[in-house]
Each structure stands twice: as structure tokens, then as C-alpha cells.
From TrEMBL:
Pfam families to which the protein is assigned, alphabetical: CHAT (PF12770)
Protein name (database record): CHAT domain-containing protein
Source taxonomy: Eukaryota, Fungi, Dikarya, Ascomycota, Pezizomycotina
InterPro entries reported for this sequence: CHAT_dom (IPR024983)
Organism name: Lasiosphaeria ovina
CHAT domain sequence ranges: 833-1151
Domain of life of the native organism: Eukaryota
Amino acid sequence: METPEEHARTHCARADTLLQRYTKSHSDHVQNEQLSLDALAELDAAASRTNPSELPERITQITALSASIHLERLLRIGLKPDADAAELGLRALLRDQQPASASYCLTLRKLLMILHIRYERTADRQFVLESLDLVGSAIAGVGQDDDDDDDAACLPVLLGACGQALIDLSECANSPSALEMAIDVLRAAADAAQSSNAVGSSEWVLTQQTLAEALRRRFEAMGDERDIAEAQAIFDDDDSNASLSPRETLSCLMARLRVLHSRWRLCPGGASLKTLIMEYSQANQLLLLNDRSPIRPELFQATGAAFNEMFFDPNHKRGVAFASILGGYRAGEELLSTWDKKPADCPGFAPYLFAMGRAWELQFHAYYSPEALGVAYGMFSQCLRLTSPDSSHYALRAAAMIGAQRMKRDLGFAGDKPGDESAIKTLTTVLLGKLPLEAKAKAAVATELGYTALRQHDSTAATAPQKTSSWLDQAIRHFRKAVSFSCTDKLSQVYALKTLAGVLATRANSHLQRDLKELALTDCDDALHVLERLAAACQGIKVNLQERYDTLGDVREVQFSIHGDQRYAENAIEAWEKLYAGKDGVSISRLMTATKASALQQRISGDHGRAARVYRSVVLTFLQVVSPSDTRPEQIWKLRLLGRLSVRALGEALMAGWPAEEVLEVAERCRSVIWNLVLGRKASVADLEARHRALAARFVKARALLARSPKAAAEAAAGDRSWGGLLASNQFHTADEYNAVLAEIRQQPGFEDFLLPGLSAERLLSVSSEGPVVMFVQSNVSSHAVVVSQAGVLAEPLPDFSQKRCEERYRHFNTFLEVRQKDPARAAEVLEDLLHWLWDAAAGPVVSALAKAGICRRDPQPTDSRLPRLWWVSSGWISVFPIHAAGEYNNSKKPKPSEGRRHVFDFFVSSYTPSLGALAYARRTMHRMSSNTVSATNTNRLPEAALVSMRFTPDVQPDLEHAAGEVREAEAILRRGYKVTTLGHPREEFQGVPYRKPVVQALRTCEVAHFACHGVADPLEPLRSRLLLCDWKGGRSLTVGFLMRMEFKSCRLVNLSACDMAVNRDLLLREEGLHVAGAFQMAGVPNVLATMWPIVDAVAPQVSRDLYSELLGGGDRLRFTDVAESLHKAVMGLMTSGESVAVWGPYVHFGA
């Protein structure tokens, strides 16, 4: 039987062998990690029969081996329990070892490595100070004994560890002197190694690596190119052939890549960038064998940052860079999960947050996504919260947060206008602290100080114009500082120059406004000089600086205003054209630039044709930014920015004499943009699949990914940590893939117009086959009606339907809405006056043009004749004004055709549609549903009808006393041919309670749906316009945003007997058809009956009763092709019974 000594010796030997194998292994996979666990098990076995009092040396050996195993695991896997176990053992060993001995120094070196890692994870300065205290005492003890060999061996090791601790001190204390001392100490370590013949050892290589990192940091601080050159030479000249473990090799490689990246930022170039990216890729290949390495988060994010250096290269796939940075972020979370219960609250997580924030910020710049900027701001804010104000990183991270906050404030997305107080407080913290260590941090702070001064200039321009020049002067001084501080980063310097030139142009214009022409010209010259520097700095760099042409145009316009020389104006327009007609640049900048170019063009020549081309180009370009990857609120926000520009483009085109068909094509693309996106999501790919199956499959996959809700996308991303999952989790990457497939499809013969809005001549004739379609175009320059009929497309000028007159009449319409209930007589008078003007200015000329083309009679039709159909495109002011009710009214009498007065309803049955494409879609849907109904009829199964009544609505007044009776009457009419489901409140009168879930379930299976309830048109956000159900207070209304995501495949008619169901109060979104009626259409319902203002509760049952009776026509099934005509007759019944147009006028039909 083995003695305890033999037993311990055997198991210790096995543990040591396993440790050596683990150290040299090239993988962190489970089988290799098992080596370390087996080694620890051997030590447990060794300790099981070892008595510390009898075998103290063996216990020391076990402790040392255990500490070494846990340290190796810590360095390879990064888990805190290993750090705790290793540190406990090393501190026990140090207590028993002789200070300044070789064993003591090596043990201390290991402990210092652990303290360094603890500092990296926690950013706690105490670990750095303890390291310096320990290593300082050890260095002081060297040479105090007689063992010169031990001294020679210990000194390089201790000096190397001291150098690393000083680097950490320079970081956590923002101390340039500590960094200088670190370099001196590390050079001394190299000299000591040479004296002790340790050159070429692994310890010497790691010390040289640490010196290179210190030199790189000093370069970032001071901008001395010799430092970065020396740092690179350390790696390039390394021919030591030292035997490094795989872990040490990866660490050295990461340090080298940091140096190379800093060198590239100083001297950027395409070839060197390709080399850098190739080296990052090789490092990632090595990382595959060390997939749990603590270096993994930094390497992933650094690789993504290198890819993002190509961000504005047209061939660059931004999604790959973002996925790499996101992978590093998640790896950082995983790494820190054992260091803190909430990894995101661990200070060591700050670098990963910062890199992720930068990535999101770039997504904002690329896709103009305010939500991406919001995520970036959140990342920067959390990062700054985890960063000590004493840290060298604080200033740069603070500037990043302030910059994101500034951009958020300027965007004003979703009402988000953060104040300046927090930014000023953060800037004050930075300015009261030490000067930032890094030059780029100084530049970033100077930049934000400049923008703060600009903000003050903007806020005082109206109240204290005499102070504006002072603020601009301060801003320019700060931006000049930013240029000078960007000495280590040429790309940052380029952007700083661009900003400086823009502010100089702003000051030139400010001087011009105050008639200080000489000062204005001086600023123009300065701005042109900066632009020359900018052009020279951009040579050979892949960087998007098209926006410099905006500044050049501004300068030339100021020169034109001073000198009056038209060549300056032409130069300005030419410069702006390079921006708005180019493929690069932020689209909102191109939008504003095009507006300036058009205004200046009008100022010098009045050329409508050129203005139309400018607006058309920019509007269509800007629409590309309304991406399928955007959330719906983002799309709405972007369309508000587009505002009236699309209308201006159409107006200029008509004034320039463009063919009406071409104007109509542009209108279809730049109006009802949300509709176009929805139609693209629903479009059939049958033809594409028949001819290009693989292409169709790729398209369908990309479209399905884009159609995911944000919640579904987030859940999918959380469950898939693979590279493919990382890519798919980025909606922007998915949108890029979708657009790439779309472009490839459009290159195929016969698919050139795939999913493009707009109708060919043949399709135009088809869409007007059941009646003419009328679209109005109003702008500050013209007003026309574009009429599509079987006779062709014509543009009818409407001089009295101008933008200005419509704005005046809109105030009258609001007056009608305000007095409708308290003074019905005055309300009727105001409304009838409005409708009379609407006939004279718009509807009358359209009817006359159609009569002239032979589409309708010149005189009112007999009351018993069947009227032709007509569709009004509900965009612009037609989305506000009830043109279907326009006519010549006598305020004292009800209108009668026999009295010689004319009205739209005397000539046509009116319907509305958001666009021609939406009308074509509604008709296709009707045809499909009719075919399905025939199939269902053969099964003898009754179609379904869903009727909803809300007599009482929680916390909403007044109660709808007639809602229950309205639904009961509808049920009585429909139950002969339909299986009727009634949902109502109070519940005892109906089959179920109208919560949103059962209502949506009913909508998925019914053919007819009827709502007698309260409706709300949200005054600020059309996506929140809604039908109120029982659970509306819990945020479960049928909102526009919710309905747009639905797909009702069998519902052929929805009757919205509720207030304001076809109302959008946001005048900047008049072109979009964003209301509850439009949302039901987007969900696939081809016929929707809605209201343009509040209806009378007591009258609504009669309208519904007459409607359904007319639709049945004596049968038991509704004739869905006659919905518009049946509504027309029901409403005319109200009119002939003496009701005012204020009562019957709000009822309208949308769809086929």
C-alpha cells in the first residue's frame, strides 16, 4: 500500500502533466477544459491523504499546482471562481516564501496578473494601487540578498509587471505621468532581460508586448508618430521564436492588431485596410480554437470596427460589421456573468457598451433610423454611468453620449426633445476634471463644446441677435481646436474640417444678414480654404463627404448675394446638385439641399422644369430611406420630414408641362408610401417563382424576416447565438439583403418594375374600367386635378383650389367641427358654404371635364337612374374635405336636383382610395374572396358576420344609447344568410364581450363586420387612432398601428359606425391614408364604410338598416360589389328626409 507521501507525489505528478497538456492545448473545447478539471481532481486526491503538519512541502506543492491550474483557466476562460481560487492559493504561497526570491517573484507575478484582470472586470482602482504597492516592495527587496542569479531573473519580471500596473494607473487616474513612467519602467525591464540573457523568453516577449501597448497609448495621447512606429517595429522585428502558449499567442496578436489599427487611423489607405482586415480575420480563425477566451469580446468588436472603416464603401456589407460587434457585446455579457449578477451593471462591461453604441450610431447615419440613435444614446448613457469621472475614458464616452443626445434633440423623433441640462452638467464634469489623456477625447470634447455654442447661437438668434456673432465665434474656436486635436486620427480630422467649414459658412450668412459684407466675404474665403484642406485630406480615403458640397453651395450663395454675379449662383446650384443627385450622403441633407437649389434656381430664372427634376430626384431618393427595416413610427416620422416636398415636386412638374401620366407615376411613388410598403409585403411572387425559383425563395425569406414584429425579432435573436443568428437579428442587414434581392429581380427581363408603385398605360385603363379616378395636386406653385378615365389621363388646372385657399377653408371646416353640437344651424351654414366653394373650386371643374370627355352627363342624372362610380384619391386636402358631398347648397332648403342646383351625388356614386395601387389591390382581393366564397358555398356552410356594440365604454362619455339597437337590427337582417356572432357591452345582451382578442378572432373568419362604438382620431399620432373596446384602457384598442399588421383573408366588408374613422389630423401625413378605415384596408378588407367627422348616434341605426337591406336586395347574401351604391342610397334617404348634410355627410366608402 502507498504511503501518504507516495500517494500525494503520484497524484501531483499526474496533475502537473495534465496542467502542461492543458496549457499547450490549442482549444478551449470541452475535451481540453476537461484536462484542467481532471488535474484539479488529481490534486483533490493528493490532498485527501496528506496531513499538513506531516507533509508541509507537499501541501505547498498542491497549493501551487492548484493556483496555477485555476490561473490558467482564468486566463483561458475568464471565470471569477477561478480568479478567487487562484488568488487564495497565491496569497498563501507568498506568506510562506522568501521575499525577493525567484519563487516569490514568480508567485507575485501570477498574483499581479489576477489583480490586473480584476481591474479590467471591475475598473476598481484599488486593485491597481495594491499591485503597485506589492511590486514596489518586491523591486525594493531585489539585491538585498547574496543570490545574484535570483536578482537577475526576478528584476525583468517585476519591472514588466510594474509597467502593466502603471499603464492601468494611467487609465484609471487619467495620468500622463503614469504612462511616461510605465514606458521608462518597461524599457528598463527590457534592459534587465538583456543583462540576464532572458531575451527571447516568453516573459520577455510579453514585456515587449506591454511596451508596445504603452507606446500606442502615448501616441494616442500626444500624437507623436515615432511612438506608433516604434510600437509596430516591436512586432515586426520580433524574431525571438519564443515558445508561447496558444493563449499567449492570441494575446500578442490582439496587441499587435491594436497597434496596426491605430497606425491605419493615422494614415488610412485602402490597401493597408485590406491587410488589417485580413489579419483580424486570421485572428478570428485562431479564436475558433479558443472560443471561450476572454479576448473574444474585444477581438469580435475590434474586427467589427475594422470592417466599419469601410462603412461608406458601396460594396461594404454593414451587417457583417454590426454582427461582429454584437457578437463581442454578447460575449462580454457571457464573460462577466460570473463577475456580477447583472453583467450590464459591471464597470468592466463599459468598453463593450461603448463599442456597441458606436455601432448603433453608425446604423443611424446609414439608415437614418432615430430608434437606432436612441439605442446608441442608451448604450452611451449606461457606459458613462459605469465609468469613473477620474478615468481617461470618461471624456470620450461623455462626448459620445452628449453627441447622441444632441442628435436626438435635433431629430425630435416621437416628441423626444431631451433638454440641455444633463449635457451641460456632463460637460462641466469633464471640464472641471483633468485634461483628457487621449487626443481624440480632447477633439471630441471640443466638438461638443462647439455644438453647444451653436445651440446657444440658435436660441438667441431671435431674442438677442447682437449676441449671435459671439456664440458663432466661440463655436468656430472650438471646432478649430477639434481639428488640431485630431492629430492621431485622420478620419476624425476630416470630419472636423467639414464641420468647421460649415460653421464658417453659417457665420458668413449671419454677417450678410446684418449687412457686414466684408466680414461675410472673409468667412467665405476661410470656408473655401478649409474645404481645400478637406479635399486634400480626403485623397485616397473611402469616406462619405458629399455633404461638403452643401457648404460649398452655401458659400457661393453668400457670394452671389454680395456680388450679384450669376456665376456664383450657378456654382452654388452645381455644388448642391453634386450632393442631391449623387448616391452618397445622408438623405435628409440631400432633401434640404435640393430645396435650396430649387429656390435659388427660381430666384435667378423661374425654371419650373429644372425645379421639378430636382424635387423628383430627391423625393424618390429619400423614399429609399423609408426602409422596410424601419419601425412604423420611424416610417411615419420620415414621411413627416418629406412633408409637402412631394406635393411641390408634382406641382412643379405640372407647371413645367410634364405629361399627366408621368406626374401620376411620380405621385403613386411618393404618396401613400406606407401603403406601398404594405402592398409589397402582400405581393404575389407566383410569376417570379415560375421563372426564377431560387430568386423568389430568397426574396420570400428576406420579406418574411422583415415582416417580423420587433418582439418576434428580439426573441429569435435571443434564442440564436450563431453567426447566422447575429446577422438575422439585425433588421438593417436584412433590409440590405432584401433590397439587394429586389435589385437583382429587377434586372431580370419582364420584372423591371417588380413591386414598384406606378401603373402602365394598360393598367391605368384597367383601374379606371369601373369609373374614373381623380387625384388632386396642390402646392404653393399650382393646383390641378389629375383625372384617370377610359378616355385617358388629363390634368385639369384648378386656380381657385390653391394651397392658400385650402388652408383658409380648413379653418372654416374646423369651425364647423367646433360648433357642430352646440349650434347645429350655424354648423350647417358653415359646412354648406365650404361645400359650395369645394364644388366651384374642385369638384365642379372635374365633373365638367368628365362630361366633356363623355364619361358622365352634363346635367344631373334623374333621381331613379343608376349613377356611374367615381373614386377620389384621398390625399392632400381631399383627405380632409368631404368632396363627395360638394355641391351648390341653399342654406334655407334641403338640396334637390330639380331646383337646378348641382352636387357631386347628382352625377356619381363616390368612393375613396388612398392610391391607384390600393384600389387595384382592393379589386384583386375582392376577386379572390369571391372565388373563395363560391367554393365555400358548395359546402353549404353559412358565411359569418361579426357585430360589435359598445353602448357603455369604460371612462368614455357619452353612452351610445342606440348602439345595441343598431346591432340587433343588423343581426335581424343578416341572420337569414349568415352565422352571426354578437359581441357587446353590457354583456348580458350579447353572445360575448368585445375584448380585442375575441374581436380579432371573429375578424379572421367573418365576411362582414360591424362596429357600433366610440372611435378616436388621435390628434398627434395617427397610428394611435382607434376603435374603443372593453379593454381599451389596458392598451388593447383596435389601433391603426395594430390593424396594419393584421391579415383578414375572408372579411369583405367592415362597417365602422363610429366617429372619425376616416380622419387623420396630422396635416403632414395627408398623403398617407393613415386612419382606421385605411388600416382595415391594409389588413385586406376590400370594402370599408367609415366617417369623416362625428356621427349622430340616433341616426346611425337607420343608415345601417337601409344599407344592409339595400345590399341584400331581397336575397339572403350581401352583394359586395354594390356596397358604395347601397351606402349612397342609404345616405340619400337621410337627405330626402330632411337631415342636414352635417348629419349624412360624414358617411363614406373606401375601396373597391
